[in-house]
Amino acid sequence: MERKIEEQESNTTLLGAVTSEQNGRTGSVLLDYLKCAAVGLKIDNINRSFGDNHVLRGVNLNIEPGETVVILGKSGSGKSVLMRHIIGLECPDTGRIFVAGEDINDPEFKRNHVLAMVFQSSALFNSLTVSENVALYLREHKIFTEESRIKEIVSSALEIVGLQGKEDEMPSEISGGMKRRVAVARALVMNPEVILFDEPTAGLDPMMTRTIGDLICDLKHQIQITQIVVTHDIDLAFYVADRIAILSEGRILEVGTPDQIRSSTNSGVIDFIKPQFA
Ligand SMILES: Nc1ncnc2c1ncn2[C@@H]1O[C@H](COP(=O)(O)OP(=O)(O)O)[C@@H](O)[C@H]1O
Ligand SMILES: [Mg+2]
Question: Is 277 a pocket residue for ligand 1 (Cβ < 6 Å)?
């Protein structure tokens, strides 16, 4: 089926469309495969400096299983640094991060848990097709022995992000918004317990921003997966979040539901979100 994704109506709910008619459509294949129980996450007093630049200054945050939490902060506030710590790419100077009660820096952790990250750059391999990019984790980790099963899961993931039929395209042939959605599909096939998004709407036009926002909402409602979104996009934060955490000067200034944040009396929070609601 030919679909011009970039021209879709902005309110299309991609995953919702798939799950509403599961009889035989491939989108449900991935939903059946994604059967992880939701897990919680605890960030416990993380500190991290680069030389004399003390970027994270005692970050504390609890995320409930199945919750979508947006960490909102200005450019340079340490959002990407925090993400790299949560995914285990970097270690804190002090403090610990727990997923499902286990310290992510314990040697055993990576054997028992999978966290997936959608990078700001999408980080696709340019020499691989869209489907090869999405299948890479399944092949490298020998998740399935049958090629037909890999193909089925990859097609299903691409359908969920609204990119069915794009399997054989190269990253250079698709738009920035599509690349971002290929990166989401690649994260989903990892069957992660937590999915992290670093600036998922950066550089996208308003319509594609809405599509990515809808996709994050759909993942929340249909898979109940724990999601952490870091962004400076205030509209996106209020659109997708169960709770918003404001990161400022290396600390979480305030955490609350969108309504609580909107009515906050904290001057730092007011200064940050005021331009949006003035
Ligand atoms: N690998 C690094 N080495 C030195 N400084 C870094 C490194 N990564 C990030 N920083 C610094 O940490 C601060 C926060 O960066 P970052 O997390 O990328 O901000 P953002 O909130 O925009 O994602 C910046 O001052 C940045 O220069
Ligand atoms: Mg960043």
Answer: no
Average pLDDT over residues 91-104: 96
CATH of domain 24-37+68-79+115-247+258-277: 3.40.50.300
Is the CB of 250 inside a 6 Å radius of any atom of ligand 1? Answer: no
Strand order in the sheet with 194-198: 115-118, 194-198, 226-231, 68-73, 243-248, 251-256
Using an 8 Å Cβ cutoff, are 175 and 134 in contact?
no
From the CA of 74, give the closest atom in ligand 1. Answer: 21
Which amino acid, one-letter code, is at 199? Answer: E
Phi, psi of 53 (to 5 degrees): -90, 100
With bands split at pLDDT 50, 70 and 90, how would you rate the model's confidence at 277? low
Q: Worst-scoring range by mean pLDDT, 9-13, 179-183, 214-218?
A: 9-13
Sorted by where each begins, the domain ranges of the chain are 24-37+68-79+115-247+258-277
Mutate to test the pocket of ligand 1, among 47, 80, 198 (most ligand atoms within 8 A of CB): 80
d(CA 77, ligand 1 centre) in Å:
8
Q: Give the contacts of 124 (CB within 8 A, at least 6 positions apart).
A: 133, 171, 179, 182, 183, 186
CB 75 near ligand 1, within 6 Å: yes
Confidence of residue 26 (pLDDT cuts 50, 70, 90): low
Beta carbon of 27 within 6 Å of any ligand 1 atom = no
